[in-house]
Design goal:
The protein is of the alpha/beta class and 242 residues long. It contains ten helices and eight strands. Strands 1, 4, 5 and 6 form a four-stranded mixed sheet that branches. The protein has a two-stranded antiparallel sheet with strand order 2-3. Strand 7, helix 5 and strand 8 form a beta-alpha-beta unit.
Length: 242
């Protein structure tokens, strides 16, 4: 406990039945130890409340596989209690996410720091982290390093939005380079096809281009090999996500 946070350890009563987190049945055999997860609950006064919840693991009553205890007040994989999640949803429906975060005292967790993601993985527990099959990231090292450390079996994927953003930036850099060359060589046609007004033509999804835009882009690719190569590489790369 400190001036900003309260931490409470929550342990199950030894006589309380273990509810399977997968099927909802009652575990009655095959005890496999326990995991500790950290979840946030409604604040107490001005202090944020964190619960260190001990979850038992037993053989599932239907599958026989090892499963973690389920709890009515805590949804699976969540790092906030159900009632706190309801409060967050209510506030974000009334105002902006930023203002809701300020009111709930959560804005300090919006930074791009590895500590935030470390805290999330630690709340899941080692076994759950090892079960993660894939992680979608934006390419920031502050996120990829913790993911490789905790989600050791996960396939790390660059999400489509940021992948598209990166290849578009690369193609636009080629356009800028070729525009400088065109101005130096006084190539008026290439200047017209590569000026700033045309940059969105290079970035636009090919399925959304008009016939006129496609014809303009085709002409540009015909007279400029670097831009043609950049466009081909961009479209082939993004096909991975299809």
């Amino acid at each position: 406990m400190n001036d900003e946070e309260i931490h409470v350890r929550v342990e199950p009563h030894k006589r309380e039945a273990v509810i399977c987190g997968d099927c909802g049945g009652i575990h009655d055999k095959g005890y496999h130890g326990s995991d500790e997860v950290v979840v946030e609950d409604l604040s107490l006064g001005k202090r944020r409340l964190y619960l260190h919840v001990i979850k038992r693991k037993n053989s599932g009553p239907k599958t026989g596989r090892k499963a973690t205890e389920g709890m009515a007040w805590l949804d699976k994989w969540k790092r906030v209690t159900r009632r706190f999640a309801i409060q967050i949803n209510r506030w974000t429906s009334l105002t902006t996410n930023q203002e809701a975060g300020w009111f709930l005292g959560m804005n300090d967790e919006k930074g791009r720091t590895s500590e935030v993601l470390n805290k999330y993985y630690e709340s899941l527990g080692q076994e759950n982290c090892e079960r993660i099959g894939s992680v979608s990231l934006d390419g920031a090292k502050t996120y990829s390093s913790p993911s490789r450390e905790y989600a050791v079996n996960a396939f790390i994927v660059l999400d489509r939005f940021h992948a598209t953003q990166k290849v578009n930036n690369a193609v636009d850099q080629v356009r800028k380079n070729e525009l400088r060359k065109a101005r130096k060589n006084e190539d008026e046609e290439l200047i017209q096809l590569t000026n700033c007004q045309q940059r969105f033509l290079l970035l636009k999804n090919k399925t959304k281009r008009t016939d006129r835009q496609s014809a303009t882009l085709s002409r540009l690719c015909d007279i400029n090999q670097p831009i043609y190569t950049g466009m081909i590489l961009k479209e082939k790369f993004l096909e991975v996500y299809d």
